[in-house]
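Dear colleagues,

For the upcoming journal club I promised to circulate an example of a predicted protein-ligand complex. I picked one with 2-acetamido-2-deoxy-beta-D-glucopyranose because it came up in last month's discussion. The inputs are reproduced below in full, followed by the predicted structure.
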Amino acid sequence: MKGEVKMKSKMKWVGLIGIVLSAFSIFIHFLLARFTELGVSDYQSSITIFSWRPIFDKPDFPTNSASYRRLWGPVKRLESLYPDSNPRGDYSDPGSQTNGFIFVRIQGGFHEIRNSICDVVAISRLLNATLAMPEIQSTTSSKGISSQFKSFAYLYNEDQFIFSLAKDVKVVRTLPKYLKGARRKKEIPVFKVPHSASPFYYLRHVLPVLKKHSVVELVVSNGGCLQAILPPYFEEYQRLRCRVSFHALQFRQEVQELSAKILQRLRAPSRPFIAFDPGMTRESLAYHGCAELFQDVHTELIQHKRSWMIKRGIVKGKLSVNSAEARLNGSCPLMPEEIGILLRAYGYSKDAIIYVSGGEVFGGQRTLIPLHAMFDNVVDRTSLSTPWEMIKIYGKEVNLVNPPPGPPPFEEVKKLAAWKNAGPRPRPLPPPPARPKSYNIEGWWGWVAESDNEPDSTVMELRTNAHKLLWEAIDYLICVEADVFIPGFDRDGKGHSNFASLVMGHRLYQSAASKTFRPDRKEAAKLVDEIRDHMYQANRTWLKSVRRHLRKTLLDGIIEASSKSKPLSFLSHPVPECSCSRHDTSFEASKNSSSKLSSQVSTTLGVTHQCPAWMDTGPISQLKDKENEDDGDEDDSLSGLFFRQSGGNNEGDGDVNAKEENQFEDQEELEGGEK
Ligand SMILES: *[C@@H]1O[C@H](CO)[C@@H](O)[C@H](O)[C@H]1NC(C)=O
Ligand SMILES: *[C@@H]1O[C@H](CO)[C@@H](O)[C@H](O)[C@H]1NC(C)=O
Ligand SMILES: *[C@@H]1O[C@H](CO)[C@@H](O)[C@H](O)[C@H]1NC(C)=O
Ligand SMILES: *[C@@H]1O[C@H](CO)[C@@H](O)[C@H](O)[C@H]1NC(C)=O
């Protein structure tokens, strides 16, 4: 008996030890698994992080095929264009004596701030004045914003700004004490400067006052305060604008670092990417009368904005506009769906990476659904960063006691009353009452920073507006670096040039040859409408005309921009003032090479300035064999492939598509090689 009990207790012990051991081993196992997982995810963190899981049809990505060059390669004819914004004639340092201080308050969004800063620097130089660090108003000086970064420094790097402009204008961080006091007492003369004032406005009206009081305050509120196109003898001021925009205005370090990280994640799969800026802000849609391209509540919200703008004299037209007509004559943004169709038709495969930029995409995710359906890898800032990384760049912000969850529902009712009184107009049914506006609030896309009564924005909205500046800063850097850029629209809510125009200007300056499509919206709308009803049977003729059109815009779009965009904003087209052309002498002998073609382009753009000798680091890439790629008749290789699946048969098209695209590209490659 006793022995049995002993035996039993022994067994118990053994069992217990066994259990403990296995528990321990499981624990270790988990620990190890945890660690290895961590290790692995760290190792791969640059690839499968966040909400983006890259999907590629083919593991390899040949970069030397003709189709690669057609889709991603540089535009050869623009390869001789280089950035050169250094002064070209006699250019003196800012003299020791100054006519006084210029203090600037800037109001507006990202692109308006950037334009304005360049203008006020040019004006300071023109008036021989000392510039106090511009103050960015309302967006960055409210109490909801981190006090860590003040005004200009919220977005840009002050030291870099001062240092980089040392040879152009004197810049001080703040006004001297006695002037600050005077400013507080409102004893400083203030000019609300017009949007595109001529230099003579400043010489005639501002300079005498500046000399008398030795300080003036300028209020810039419409995204610029100096004419875009200046008389020829002011050319150095244009180059100064370029130096400010492309060299002196660097984002704050934290913003630069996060952008670099995002860019690195975007490039982690070692594939090129397209940046797409939809430019669909509620204001620009309202200004251009594009309300009816949307439905229901969106239409009404745009119309509400438009009536608000008409009341304030921002919009001169009627409240109701035939949006379909406006779209057909190119006054409305191209929708993400239309951009998607054009890109697919041009030949970008379903797995191409598309970065969607923009602080606001009106209509929210809903308008992006078709783009997501056409491309697997549609990403944006939020899918390539963590909320924590974003919060870090905002700086320390006080907790808002009760962040309002969105406009209260009764506002909706008020609006409806206003619409009812707005006069007859064919309008869709009012939104169903059971669904309050909040269903549109979808992360950053949807209803961010919207307020119907502009003056009394809530603290939360002001804060979001400030954050939007940082988001756009990140998007700006990524769009400038992108292998391919395509804008949906190039006008803002005041009819001026927008964010995308600035990006295109920057790309033209910095890397003229990088691919920037500038679709002619009129033409594009027509092309898309042609196959709207039978998209899956797009024929060769149609595909060819899309390709021809898009390729044409690579060059002709630039030439057109010099007559259409430049008068609105110099920075959207800083050519020829800020560029130089590099002719390769080794090509002079064989006159038939494309160096002749590229010099033709330079001439058309008016770039006559030869690049300084130090830029001649080597011959321009050998163009001989490739030159026809830009003239491109290789379209013959089209095999009528586009969205092949017929009708509702969406399943399993991936496989077929991949195969067919493969075939398609092989064919193209073959033909490219034959030439
Ligand atoms: C600014 O200074 C330059 C040289 O120092 C002088 O030629 C020019 O007339 C001055 N302009 C004004 C507006 O004072
Ligand atoms: C569109 O048409 C209107 C008149 O219907 C015209 O005033 C406007 O200039 C046109 N816009 C463009 C971009 O052609
Ligand atoms: C090709 O498609 C376009 C637009 O769908 C149509 O207008 C044209 O007639 C078609 N051409 C041929 C040859 O089928
Ligand atoms: C250049 O083209 C012309 C005809 O346009 C031809 O006569 C000439 O031989 C070509 N020169 C060279 C170097 O290819």
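Two points we might discuss: Residues 25 and 31 are 10 Å apart (CA to CA). The pocket of 2-acetamido-2-deoxy-beta-D-glucopyranose (ligand 1) is lined by residues 95, 99, 127-128, 207 (CB under 6 Å).

See you all on Thursday,
B. R.
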